[in-house]
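// run 5 | inverse folding | seed 20
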């Protein structure tokens, strides 16, 4: 018996998925004739939780004493519980009290978990295999898509009871939910089935997808993953593919920009290249050149952040100023090139360290702080 399904793809708010399931359409008469020849594996669904009280079992027997089959017994329990009050904000049961006993004899109000648990326990106490199922109710029907929209507020719990030849059949003891609608005649049959038939008749319906095929199997439906992607909502695979599509032109644009930059630098002298690279590194790390700053003033700004490199920084800046404002000089170019080679690998790390210290100071820390 299938107990749960877990998607291999993480689901996010707004994402849709499709599930096709078989639903029992056994009639009430068929369930009354199903008998009590339960398979051995259903024995685990007759176990009662620790703490179950005798009066819970006694109530189940009193409610079902006039019934002659498990189905009518289940219906008697369901109808009794539907007379209780539905309430979300309930008092927490005392730690020394059985929850079902507290619900039935003290509070007499609760939400779906209480109703489902109470019916499952009472059904087990009279020998009917039962379980509590948590999932979602039908939701709201969307006339445009022909589908039911199930949202978080549709979360629900209900009991299911086992009937030989028909499997698990759902019941609804929660009074705010509609009772299951049992068909009068089995699908494809004009009468009831013989529960002693050698071939079990599960009376399962076949989903009619003729009106929903377009919605379920449209171009946005991934048959491999079983996920329908709404407009603006992507799966991880489609997000990765989309990222790759953007990465290629972005990489090409970056390579083009680097090529243009290299071309521009190749047309400059060593002093100009050294100063511009020093300026770009400093700007990226937070030491930006103000419009009113001269190359010498900018060199002092960087020197304050990197005192150990101050000599090389000043040399690069002064060489640039001489080259731009006084004309070409081979001595200036050599001096700038030599100084830049000495500081170009150290400058980024020194400025990063200074930037980190500046952030700590802004947060109120000093070098002497600990912890």
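// decoded
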């Amino acid at each position: 018996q299938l107990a749960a399904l877990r998607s291999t793809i993480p689901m996010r708010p707004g994402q849709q998925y499709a599930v096709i399931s078989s639903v029992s359409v056994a009639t009430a008469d068929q369930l009354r004739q199903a008998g009590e020849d339960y398979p051995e594996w259903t024995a685990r669904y007759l176990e009662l939780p620790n703490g179950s009280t005798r009066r819970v079992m006694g109530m189940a027997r009193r409610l079902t004493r006039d019934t002659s089959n498990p189905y009518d017994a289940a219906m008697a329990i369901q109808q009794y519980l539907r007379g209780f009050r539905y309430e979300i904000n309930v008092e927490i049961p005392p730690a020394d009290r059985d929850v079902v006993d507290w619900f039935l004899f003290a509070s007499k109000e609760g939400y779906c978990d209480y109703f489902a648990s109470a019916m499952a326990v009472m059904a087990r106490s009279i020998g009917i295999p039962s379980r509590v199922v948590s999932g979602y109710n039908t939701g709201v029907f969307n006339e445009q898509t022909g589908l039911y929209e199930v949202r978080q507020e549709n979360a629900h719990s209900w009991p299911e009871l086992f009937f030989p030849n028909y499997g698990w059949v759902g019941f609804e003891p929660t009074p705010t939910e509609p009772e299951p609608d049992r068909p009068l005649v089995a699908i494809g049959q004009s009468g009831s089935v013989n529960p002693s038939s050698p071939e079990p008749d599960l009376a399962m319906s076949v989903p009619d997808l003729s009106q929903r095929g377009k919605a379920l199997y449209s171009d946005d439906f991934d048959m491999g993953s079983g996920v329908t992607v709404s407009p603006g909502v992507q799966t991880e695979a489609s997000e990765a593919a989309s990222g790759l599509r953007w990465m290629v032109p972005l990489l090409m644009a970056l390579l083009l920009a680097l090529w243009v930059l290299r071309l521009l630098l190749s047309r400059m002298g060593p002093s100009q290249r050294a100063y511009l690279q020093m300026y770009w590194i400093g700007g990226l790390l937070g030491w930006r050149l103000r419009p009113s700053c001269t190359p010498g003033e900018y060199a002092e700004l960087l020197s304050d952040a990197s005192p150990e490199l101050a000599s090389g920084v000043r040399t690069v800046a002064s060489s640039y100023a001489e080259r731009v404002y006084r004309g070409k000089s081979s001595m200036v170019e050599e001096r700038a090139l030599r100084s830049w080679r000495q500081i170009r690998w150290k400058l980024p790390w020194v400025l990063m360290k200074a930037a980190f210290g500046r952030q700590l100071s802004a947060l109120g820390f000093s070098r002497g702080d600990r912890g």
